[in-house]
Structures are given as structure tokens and as C-alpha cells.
């Protein structure tokens, strides 16, 4: 099966389409992070909603890498305004927070612990039908949350997913003017997440020809354009912006693997895309060593990029990391603090739902070894 719930509107200036999309709604709530206000996109969006004849209310200051506490903090404001349309204007963090706010606004009887995928060996309670429409307008080029069915939230520094088609946005507006204002590091970290989405989605146990098409196009685009995009090149930023959504469509269908399981469980250490980039080469080496399927699939990607083997692709990933200044895990945290949580991270990554889609079933000790290799930068 291949599915996509979200209608995608793209192109320079397409933020204006919010006017048409807001028509027929009475109370529109825009959730955004501070940069969107600073760069004028929030007031532009507010104007479109007003022109559509709806009442608009905005909440700014949504944080990066949201947690369960973030949702508790903002939910009363959402309930107070009683919106009939939610607009998420920001990066993956804002979109994920808005998706979770939609769940608890529309279904107040639910608790995070009962609907989140805490552990792949137990099933969460299904999310009922939710009514409030959701429009996602990404300002970074990375997470793919504008088309995905997931909301990723931290609890105690560790990330868990809520996954249901009910939170996949109804509309995504991809206006390449927004990611133009990303600082270099945000462009790098979110862009690296796209490569990881593409490579992991291409190599899961449930990848199919349709998700492959999206994954390959996203990988090729990011490989070619990310270094330029990080430098601020306008054409490159636009290309990577669309590639991010393509990779989102790929993993919406093919899911992700061990790299994401490990980065979610290490979320207390740094930004999501950066952690993924750090873990990716180690996870690829692990998968390639143990699985013919993974080796063959990595080689297919390598050939699309003009190389030959799985080993070549791992080298390409390492070189890209080096070129973009991706650190080792050991540069993000001191040894003692890291070691104190290592067993917990390895056990929880083993139990993460995404680990089930990885081409190789890892043991907790093997995941621990991968964390250690990433920490010390051992090749
Ligand atoms: N749901 C999914 O399927 C999925 C998939 C992958 C990742 N994720 C999640 O997505 C999150 C990461 O999202 P992200 O990589 O998109 O980054 P982000 O965390 O949304 O954004 C990082 C920072 O970049 C700034 N920023 C964003 N857009 C900007 C712009 N256009 N100009 C200037 N500054 C801008 C924001 O700062 P200000 O606060 O100053 O605005 C923000 O704090 C993680 O929590 C990750 O777990 C979700
Ligand atoms: Fe990701």
C-alpha cells in the first residue's frame, strides 16, 4: 500500500494560498516559533486568514524539540480560543507540537502514555476520529512532518511517537521563501535528517517501489544540493525544501529504522537531524555487515549517486558529515553523563517501534556498542 493524506501546494509565494484554505473557517489558530514572527511570515499568514474572513489568533514561542510538558503548557490556550482550523507555521518541532495539540484538543479524554508508541511489544490505544483541520507550513527543510502521520515528543529527554493518520496534515504549503531565513546550522541539521529519512526508508523491511521513488529522488537531491543550501544558495534551498517533503512521503509509507530509534532515545543530547547524521554511518555498517538485503539496497542507492557498492555509500555519508562539520557524540556530552544513561538508551532503542522495520533485528548489546562507537568516533 502507498498512501498520502496531505494535499501539497508548492512554489515561491504559495503562502498566499492560506487565504483560500482558510475560507469557510471561523476561528483560525496559528502556532509558530519566534523566527516566523521575526521574519514577518507570521503577520503575512495572519493577513491571509483575515482576508479570508476568519478570526485569527496566534501563539508564538513554540520551542524546538517539543516535550509532553510543551503540550501541557500550550493546550489551555488552544482550548480557550476554540479554533476550527489549526495552522502550524514553523519547523518539524512546531508541526509536531501542533499535531499533538490537535489530538488532546479534539479528544481531551486521551493521555499521552496510552496513545504513544512507548514500546514495540505493546500496542497503544487507537486514536479516534479527530475533527479539527490542520494545515502545515514548514519553515525548515527536514522533518517531513508536514506529510507524516507522526508527532514526536520528548518525555524525560527521550522521544516517543504518536502515530495515526488522524494527525497527518490535511494540507501542506511549501513556500521556499520560508527556509531561506534558516541559519546555517538549522539548514544543515534539518537537511541531514532528509538524507537519513531517504536512506532508512529505502532500506526498511516494508519499502516498496512507490516509497523507493520518493526516497531516491530525495536522497539524490540532498546529496547534490545540501552543501550549497547550507551556504544559503536560493535555488539549493528550494530544491532541499521539496526533497524534505518527498522523504517524508517515503517514510510515511516505508517507515524508518534503527538510526531513528537511536536518535529518539538520545534526544537529550542534541538536535534531531544532527544526532541522526552522527549515528547513520555506524548503523549502515552494522546493517550492511549482517544483511544481504541491506547491502544490496545501499548499493542501489550508491549507483544512483554515481558510485558502486554499499561501502561506497557509507563513505559518501561519512564524507558529507565531515564536509558539513558534524561532530562525534563525544563532542556533545561528557563521558560520565553519557555512560550513566547508555544502558537505558540501548534498551529503549531496542524496544522502539522503528527498530522493527530495520533490515536487521539488533540485540540491546549491539545497540549499546553502536552508541559507544558514535561516542568515540570509532570507524
Ligand atoms: N513528525 C515527524 O514525522 C518527524 C520526523 C522527523 C523529525 N521530527 C521532529 O522534528 C523536530 C526537528 O525539526 P526541524 O529539524 O524541522 O527543526 P526545528 O526544531 O523545528 O527548528 C529548529 C530551530 O530552527 C529555527 N527556525 C526554524 N525555521 C526557521 C527559519 N525559516 N528561519 C530562521 N530560523 C528558523 C527555530 O528557531 P526559533 O525558535 O527562533 O523560531 C527552531 O527552534 C524534532 O523534534 C524531531 O523529532 C518529526
Ligand atoms: Fe528524522
UniProtKB/TrEMBL annotation:
CDD domains: NADPH_BDH (cd08179). Gene3D superfamilies: 3.40.50.1970, Dehydroquinate synthase-like - alpha domain. Keywords: Oxidoreductase. Residues 190-374 form the Fe-containing alcohol dehydrogenase-like C-terminal domain. GO terms for molecular function: alcohol dehydrogenase (NAD+) activity; metal ion binding. Residues 6-176 form the Alcohol dehydrogenase iron-type/glycerol dehydrogenase GldA domain. It comes from the Archaea. InterPro entries: ADH_Fe/GldA, ADH_Fe_C, Alcohol_dehydrogenase_Fe, NADPH_BDH. It holds the Pfam family Fe-ADH. This is Alcohol dehydrogenase.
Amino acid at each position: 500500500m502507498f498512501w498520502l493524506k496531505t494535499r501539497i501546494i508548492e512554489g515561491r509565494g504559495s503562502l498566499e494560498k492560506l487565504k483560500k484554505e482558510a475560507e469557510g473557517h471561523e476561528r483560525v489558530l496559528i502556532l509558530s516559533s519566534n523566527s516566523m514572527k521575526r521574519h514577518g511570515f507570521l503577520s503575512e499568514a495572519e493577513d491571509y486568514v483575515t482576508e479570508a474572513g476568519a478570526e485569527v489568533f496566534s501563539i508564538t514561542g513554540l520551542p524546538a524539540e517539543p516535550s509532553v510538558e510543551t503540550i501541557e503548557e500550550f493546550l489551555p490556550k488552544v482550548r480557550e480560543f476554540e479554533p476550527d482550523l489549526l495552522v502550524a507555521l514553523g519547523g518539524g518541532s512546531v508541526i509536531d507540537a501542533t499535531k499533538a495539540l490537535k489530538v488532546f484538543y479534539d479528544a481531551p479524554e486521551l493521555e499521552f502514555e496510552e496513545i504513544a508508541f512507548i514500546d514495540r511489544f505493546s500496542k497503544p490505544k487507537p486514536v479516534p476520529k479527530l475533527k479539527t483541520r490542520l494545515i502545515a507550513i514548514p519553515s525548515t527543510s527536514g522533518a517531513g512532518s508536514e506529510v507524516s502521520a507522526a508527532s514526536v515528543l520528548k518525555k524525560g529527554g527521550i522521544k516517543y511517537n504518536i502515530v495515526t493518520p488522524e494527525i497527518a496534515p490535511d494540507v501542506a504549503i511549501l513556500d521556499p521563501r520560508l527556509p531561506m531565513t534558516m541559519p546555517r546550522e538549522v539548514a544543515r541539521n534539518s537537511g541531514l535528517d532528509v538524507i537519513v529519512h531517504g536512506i532508512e526508508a529505502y532500506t526498511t523491511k516494508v519499502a516498496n517501489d512507490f516509497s523507493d521513488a520518493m526516497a531516491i529522488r530525495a536522497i539524490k537531491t540532498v546529496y547534490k544540493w545540501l552543501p550549497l543550501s547550507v551556504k544559503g544558495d536560493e535555488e539549493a534551498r528550494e530544491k532541499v525544501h521539496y526533497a524534505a517533503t518527498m522523504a517524508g512521503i517515503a517514510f510515511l509509507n516505508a517507515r524508518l529504522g534503527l538510526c531513528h530509534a537511536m536518535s529518539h532515545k538520545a534526544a537529550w543530547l542534541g538536535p534531531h537531524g544532527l544526532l541522526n547524521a552522527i549515528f547513520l554511518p555506524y548503523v549502515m555498517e552494522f546493517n550492511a555487515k549482517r544483511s544481504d538485503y541491506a547491502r544490496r539496497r545501499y548499493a542501489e542507492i550508491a549507483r544512483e549517486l554515481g558510485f558502486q557498492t554499499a561501502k561506497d555509500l557509507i563513505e559518501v555519508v561519512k564524507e558529507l558529515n565531515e564536509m558539513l562539520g558534524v561532530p562525534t557524540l563525544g563532542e556533545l556530552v561528557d563521558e560520565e553523563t553519557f555512560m550513566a544513561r547508555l544502558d537505558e538508551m540501548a534498551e529503549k532503542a531496542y524496544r522502539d517501534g522503528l527498530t522493527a522495520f530495520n533490515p536487521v533485528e539488533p540485540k540491546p548489546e549491539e545497540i549499546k556498542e553502536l552508541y559507544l562507537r558514535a561516542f568515540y568516533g570509532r570507524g
